Amino acid sequence: MYYCSMYSREILKGILKPIILKLLSENRRMYGYEITQRVKTLSQDKILIKEGSLYPTLHALTKEGYLVTESVMVDNRTRKYYSLTPRGKEAAHPMIEEVLEFRETLKLLFGTKPASA
Amino acid sequence: MRLSQSQQQVLQHYMNSHGMQNQSLKSDLLDHLSCKVEELMDEEKLGFEEALERAQIQSMPNGPQEFERDLKLLTTQKSTIMIRKIAFLGGYVSALCLCLSILFFALSSFENKKNALRMNSAQMEYELQENNHPTAFHNHPIYKNMVAQSAESAIVAYRQYSRAEKLLMASIFLLVTTFLPYLFFAGYRKQSPEVEPI
User: Fold this and answer.
1) At B110, which helix (H) or strand (E)?
2) Which of B39, B66, B93 is the last residue of a domain?
3) Do A55 and B67 touch (CB under 8 A)?
4) Rounded-to-integer distance, Cα B52 and Cα B38, Å
């Protein structure tokens, strides 16, 4: 269980980390639910991140030192905001570049427009 | 719509009933579930109970403990691979040492056997020569030559035996410290039942 979207799991597997790092590099801090909603909106409902993928990845990134958390009490519950550490900021740029480069390579392989039926 | 304190407690109870150990992940999921329930109540005008049921199905169909398992897998993957590599390398070197030990032990045995045969053949050679008296064999050049060769052979046999002994010890040590613990631990993990939620 990774994503629920119009794209197959095989295609999307591996880009969750760059997605999280990209969003956090553009926003000072975000919480889990906010990340899923932002991805849903930005991808025009084409990528819906499953919680089963998001939270283990967020925690793994935190453990690896890319993210740091900040707990805030909101409506009688604890909300954890994630933000990039200096190491995370350093890692975000090359990871995003790699995805963009990969996109260009895919264009070379498959062309820029979907093949007509 | 914001959840009331009693509704928050229902969610808290749901999370607690699944026996999650990771408090950090638990608070993440509690907040996520709360957000989801609030969204369903707002956008689809559902009651709290119905919204909670739907949020559980959509967000955590297999319960929140599944997230904990996934996280464990994700964060221990590298070390598990490393442990496996060490265990299999230890097992391989242990098997290699055992094979070499058997080889040296066999060579040592052959050397001893060769020595005994040399002794017999020298005696036979001496006895076959005419005019030789059996009592004078110890002074005969055949005997002296044989003793020199036997001494050399005994040293070689001793060295090979010593090597076999060391390799056997290394093999057992590697097997006991690397491969066997991994094998038993893997077997234990397969046999041990899943922890039941409290």
Assistant:
1) helix B65-128
2) B66
3) yes
4) 9
Count how many Cα atoms sit within 13 Å of the Cα of residue B125 in the half-sphere of its side chain: 12
Render pLDDT for B101-137 as a digit per residue (tens, 0 to 9): 999 999 989 988 888 888 888 777 777 775 656 566 6
Sign, CA dihedral B33-B37-B38-B44, equals positive
Q: Does residue B6 belong to the interface with chain A, where contact is any CB pair within 8 Å? A: no
- Burial (CB < 10 A; 0-12, 13-18, 19+), residue A2, is middle
Q: What is the per-residue pLDDT for B169?
A: 92
Per-residue model confidence as pLDDT tens digits over A41-98: 999 988 888 888 888 889 889 988 999 999 999 888 899 999 999 999 999 999 999 9
Instruction: Clarify whether residues B182 and B113 are in a common domain.
Output: yes
Structural domains counted in chain B: 2
Which range of residues forms the domain containing residue B170? 76-191
Chain A residue numbers touching B31 (CB-CB < 8 A): 31-33, 74, 77-80
Do B80 and B62 lie in a common domain?
Answer: no
CB proximity list for A63: less than 8 A, separation 6 or greater = B75
B-chain CB neighbours of A52 within 8 Å are 60, 66-67, 70
Same domain, B54 and B93: no
Mean of all residue pLDDT scores within chain B: 83
- Residue A69 Cα, gap to closest chain B Cα (Å): 10
What totals of helices (H) and strands (E) does chain A contain, helices first?
5, 5
- Considering the domain boundaries, does residue B198 fall inside one? no
Query: What type of residue is B137?
Result: F
Nearby residues of B102 by Cβ (< 8 Å), 6 or more positions away: B164
Q: What domains can be seen in chain A, in order of their start residue?
A: 3-98 (1.10.10.10)
B131: in domain: yes
Contact B11, B52 (CB under 8 A): yes
Decide if B17 touches A, using CB distance below 8 A: no
Give phi and psi for A30, each to the nearest 5.
Answer: -145, 150
